[in-house]
Write a structure and sequence with these properties.
- By secondary structure, the protein is of the alpha/beta class.
- It has a single domain (about 1-445), classed as Alpha-Beta Complex (Spore Coat Polysaccharide Biosynthesis Protein SpsA, Chain A), CATH 3.90.550.
- The chain has 14 helices and eight strands.
- It has helices spanning about 1-40, 70-80, 100-105, 125-140, 160-170, 185-210, 225-230, 240-250, 270-305, 310-315, 320-345, 350, 360-390, 405-425; strands at about 55-60, 85-95, 110-115, 145-150, 155, 175-180, 220-225, 255-265.
- It has an eight-stranded mixed sheet with strand order 3-2-1-4-7-6-8-5, with helices on both faces.
- α3 (about 100-105) links the parallel β2 and β3.
- α9 crosses α14.
- It is globular, with a radius of gyration of 24 Å.
- Mean pLDDT is about 85; it is low at about 345-355 and about 440-445.
Length: about 450
Amino acid sequence: MNLLIAWYDNLYNVLNTINVVILYVIGVPFGLQLIYMLLFWLPKKKWKKTSKINRIAVVIPAHNEEDVIYDTVKSVIEKQKYPKDMYDVYVIADNCNDKTKELALKAGAKKVYEHFDDDPKHHMVGYALKYGFAELLKEGIEYDFIIRLDADNHINDEFFSLMNDAYNAGAKIARPYESALNMTQNGFTKACGLYYTFDSRCSSRVRERLHLDAHVNGPGSLTDYQIIKRIGGYDTVTMCEDTEFNFKRMFEKYRCHYVEDAVVYEDLPSTMKDTLARNKRLGAGNTRMLIRYTPKLFFYTFKNLNFSFIENWLTYLFIPICPILCLWLPGFYIYAYIYHFMGNEADFSKNFLWFTNLDWVGYTTALIVFMISILFVFCGILQATLMVLSDYKKLGAKRRRDLLSGILLFPIFSIVYVVTITIGIFSPPKWEKVNRNKIKKDEAN
């Protein structure tokens, strides 16, 4: 019996030690996000206006996007306050069996590249972009930079002009402010939008002001055309090809910038089902990408003495942290409670309140758990409130109170995010079509 008790004691001690280490690891990226929130007051960077007009290629990958591609292309062509003869729109219709090509051309796309690949493992946006960029280079047209959009994206009217200013100021890689087309559709989209746009309003602004590299993801990103020519097109085909593309340019010592007044609006998932589809892709792709690039990110941190690499790693560490929050922490603390409760049946009150008898390690652990809980609830609501107070117009709302339900639902959506990302980590990577909420086909028919 004593041997059995000793075995349980040893197991608990081992698991508790592992738990303490995990909590410290979790605390670092959470602490970084807290710093970004506390630096909310930093002024945004303003890029110097320029009179030089550069030639732009707009590239849009699309997989069965007949619901939105017409409106997206037409909006880009007609609404930009930029010389019409200085930009062209190219659509890559990837394995489409709908009217994506016809509608894109009808809306005014210069050309649609049709890409067909029977290999289901290649049904990802990276392969579409690899093919499309190769075809674009064959055109022989000299562009200055490329703007990549998704099929459901819209951009503010000054987008090209603002990106042009940043390019002329030396930005070879840049990202815009990411907002939502359907922000006020329902409480779910409001909470979702506030969650995703935090990286634009807070994290990206602080990175730019502290001379750290921006996280340049796909929608609205700017890339110097000379980079595309040098690497021969597009050199990533993974599920998170945009993040990998950004990493590779960082390794080549390109600074990645943030242009805050240039806004890209994307269609947010409005249901649990669509959020799951989106986050399965993010969870599966980012986890595999992080495993692959962790050694290089640490290597280049010390090689270039650039904190941007570690900052990227810490931010993307939230992805593998999700299953820890979902599985490990609940499992461990349920086990810990049972262990302490069953350890001494004669003293029920002592074991029921076992956490009052912790040593310094236990107190430290409890403190970290408490801080994470506070960050999750209080700071989550606070950061959502700050977003609404400062950026409600960019978020597509006419009044601040229109986003009140999003603030209150923010912690709940955070739980949804963690759970769906966890499911995604254990799912095979796949480029799935997500239902669109902004369907405007009447004008095209």
